Amino acid sequence: MARMKFLCDADRCIECNACVTACKNEHEVPWGINRRRVVTINDGLPGERSVSMACMHCTDAPCAAVCPVECFYTTADGVVLHSKDTCIGCGYCFYACPFGAPQYPKVGNFGTRGKMDKCTYCAGGPDQDMAEAEYVKYGSNRLAEGKLPLCAEMCSTKALLAGDGDIIADIYRERVVTRGYGSGAWGWRTAYGDTITV
Amino acid sequence: MTRLTRLLAIAAFAALGAVGAPLMPLAPMAEAQQVNPTAESVTEDKLFQALRGDQMIEGRASIPDPKAPGLIKPGNKGWADTHTGTIRALTVWTMIGMVALLGIFYAYRGRIRIDAGPSGRTIKRFGGVERFAHWLMAVSFILLALTGLNLVLGRSVLLPMIGEGAFGALSASGKIVHNYMGWAFMLGLALAFVVWVGRNLPKAHDLTWIAMGGGLFKKGVHPPAGKFNAGQKLIFWSVVVGGAALSFTGVMLLFPVLAGTQADWQLYQLIHGIAAALLTAVILAHIYIGSIGMEGAFDAMGSGEVDLNWAREHHSLWVEEVEGKSAGSQGGGRVAPAE
Asked: Across the strands, what pairs with A107?
């Protein structure tokens, strides 16, 4: 099986935010939640770069380690998913996540946290693949249809790559060699414990 | 652009200036137009080097969510390790340790009896308000402790026993109970503080009580004590301090917006977990001595009336005080006190 990863090539990202929008539309993400976001660092300064960031589907995911109800699981493809039926909205996964991926819809009068929502790598959840119940809770399951995450598929500059970690690492490495520079595979060291060396 | 980003950017540039200056000439701000696109100032590596402690790489995001501009915060894994390691271990070992200690104590001392036997006469120890405050705290604390313990140990103990569906439903309702019971606990705590703080100020005879081990370890030894002995005063102040810490951090966890940033939530969660484990251990000892550990003790919080002999043995100074007062009030002016 492949080990699915995300890689954002910051030297290509033009901060168009289409990945954010496509994700919200594809999954009918709840109001106020963005499973993916684009962050610009050194904005307006020399060496400005933008990075599209979402759940990185970590190896030994810290969210899964701290979850008091053990609602997380890692699929055979290395995708970190969770069950909204089991989640109690305690917020611990957000405290533990290095990427700020878990988010909670505000329910009730006091802004109590609802069930956690995060990027599913377009792979749905524990419900039956492509069932209505799965769509309502987690959004569409493109992986089950044999497709990759929409954010990466429709990225206009192909900055955002999704797929088997080894393959996208090769693509990135080739780019860096060809153009002579690269800002690095953002988040890889934190998420997977290694980074791409050229 | 936030202040932190600016700092980070400056730090990254400064670090480069020191390390990479001979290799790569840095364009000053004024020459921004001629900047080399290969500038390494924005590689993840360099920003990581500029990161210190618990900071995060942060930038600007067009999403109107104050948390969105945070990019990578590797330090969060540290909290995850502390929570799953230290907090879990502390909780398990304080519980096991206290239960073992109490078991050993019971095996050694057995149930502490009233040495003189029950007198059959009772004396009023706790009034309605005092008992209401105590039981409000007691019931809410036990529910809070159980639902809290479930969050720390449930997935390794309860989940394998009852299965995912039942455990999920139980934990979800447990969270609601925990969120609401906190308010009952805070009310009880405030009430108990007001009615008892005057009686819990340290006195000189508390040192004697502690020096004699409270008479706990030897039959027939009863150091003098007021309405509350030094042990009870320690429990009172543990509950006040621990309860206040739990209340404050609990409210902050309940309303994350009040608390500030992620780092604050992590800190409050750690304080909450540590205080909960320690206070639960103290309360276990309190429950033991107030129920099976000592004959006659439960009545104080049950009916509010305690046996006179029990009171004489465990709270001698208080009994003298009460008897002196009631004798004085009964005698009220008719009998002149013996000089």
From this structure: A112
